[in-house]
Amino acid sequence: MVTKIGFLINPIAGMGGRVGLKGTDGVVNQAKKLGAQPVAPGKAKQMLQAFHSLYKTDDIQWITCSGAMGEHVLRESDYQNITVVYTPSSKVTTSSDTKHACSFFLNHHVELVIFCGGDGTARNVFDVIGTQIPLLGVPCGVKMHSGVFGVSAEATATILHEFISKTLTIGDVDIMDLDEDRYRQGEWNIHLFGVAKGIVEPTYIQVGKQTFESVSDTSIIEEIAEHTQEEMENNPDTMFLMGSGGTIDSIAHLLHLDNTLLGIDAVYKGKTIAKDVNEHQLLTLLKKYSKTKVILSPIGAQGFILGRGNLQLSPQVISTIGLDNIIVVSTPSKLTHTPVIRVDTGDKNLDKLFRQKEFFMVVIGYRLSRVVKIQV
Q1: CB distance 6 to 116 below 8 Å
Q2: Residue 58 forms beta bridges with which residues?
């Protein structure tokens, strides 16, 4: 029996990440001027190639869009049973193209929509699909807090295989999003956009982001800040890169550092030397400072320290810094709901090195750490 799968790529998704724009909505031209390269087609190809090894693809009819919105990658990945139902009017696609494509998917009675993008794409797909059929996202964007995404491109292939085999549960999943203009101003105001139908599988599907606030965490943050300060004092010739998010922002505030809540900052000898840097700027700094450590904190409930909201820390940047120079910090309350550390660097070889590392010693207080398993 042939299964109809709607397949859609947002070609510009994720392009703003490495160049430090914290998204691509409304800034595609600016991202291109800064040297941004397409992300989504490569991620889509990873998923499709992984799926080749799991399932007899003759039993799937791929309902898709022409060109960069799906057809090219499907044909490049040696898929044959392809039906193109929508052609965008311009080479530069928009959210309207995503919505029009989804309308055609419904008309062709697809059983699942797989899209390659981020939260903005998820929202556009949900606008049309609603709760009529399940959604599944290949993570390609800068911000991905919704519960429809696989934890990686390869994990999404596994989910698709098991969906077709009818071994997974369909349930409610949150569609989350935020205003990218406010995001670029340092405001982190994530809100629930809607509840879609998705695949409930905690091993392969990321849960929606959760924020944890507790009065008792204040003293813990102070201890982690003290530990971080001691680390910096003990390594005076080392540049420290401060990751994004509320936990690290609180630590930076206690250390009297001029910090960017949703960007990457560089600190040397207790002073901020560069703010909100992109990939190119990071690589330039790494040439100047021979010793570097990066401080990261996992996204609550999801566990990601790389690949969600900090694409500036590209595979080349992380490989240059080295896995042993990554410091992960978290409050114990966050770890209660975040049982594993996850990475999605976009580089298979680098992800393999994380897998081989097996665990991080996560700093949870002053000179106090907890072993947390790495899941890639």
Answers
A1: no
A2: none
Helix, strand, coil abundance in the chain, percent, nearest 5: 35, 25, 40
Q: Return all residues near 195 (Cβ < 8 A) that are at least 6 apart.
A: 131, 172, 173, 174, 175
Identity of residue 326:
I
- Return the exposure string of 161-193: e unless at least 16 CB atoms fall within 10 Å of the residue's CB, then b: bbbbeeebeeeebbbbbbebeebbeeebebeeb
Contact 344, 219 (CB under 8 A): no
Q: Is 326 helix (H, G, I), strand (E, B) or coil?
A: strand
E strand intervals along the chain: 3-9, 60-65, 82-86, 112-117, 135-139, 169-177, 191-200, 239-242, 265-268, 271-274, 292-296, 304-306, 326-328, 340-343, 359-365, 368-375
Q: At 285, list the tokens.
A: 């700094």
In the chain, the amino acid numbered 70 is G
Bridging pattern class, strands 239-242 and 191-200: unpaired
55-99 tens-digit pLDDT: 766 689 999 999 999 999 999 999 989 999 999 988 888 999 999
Q: What is the pTM of this model?
A: 0.65
Q: Which of helix, strand or coil describes residue 102? A: helix
Does the structural domain 3-200 have CATH classification 3.40.1350? no
- ∠ CA(140), CA(348), CA(364), 5° rounding? 80
Helix, strand, or coil here: 336? helix
Over residues 122-135, the mean pLDDT reads: 95
- Can you give the residue ranges of every domain in the chain? 3-200, 217-375
Q: For residues 143 and 183, give the distance between their C-alpha atoms in angstroms, rounded to a whole number.
A: 10
Could you give the strand order of the β-sheet that contains 112-117, starting from the edge strand earlier in sequence? Answer: 82-86, 60-65, 3-9, 112-117, 135-139
How much is the pLDDT for 138?
A: 92
Going edge to edge, which strands form the sheet with 340-343? 304-306, 340-343, 368-375, 359-365
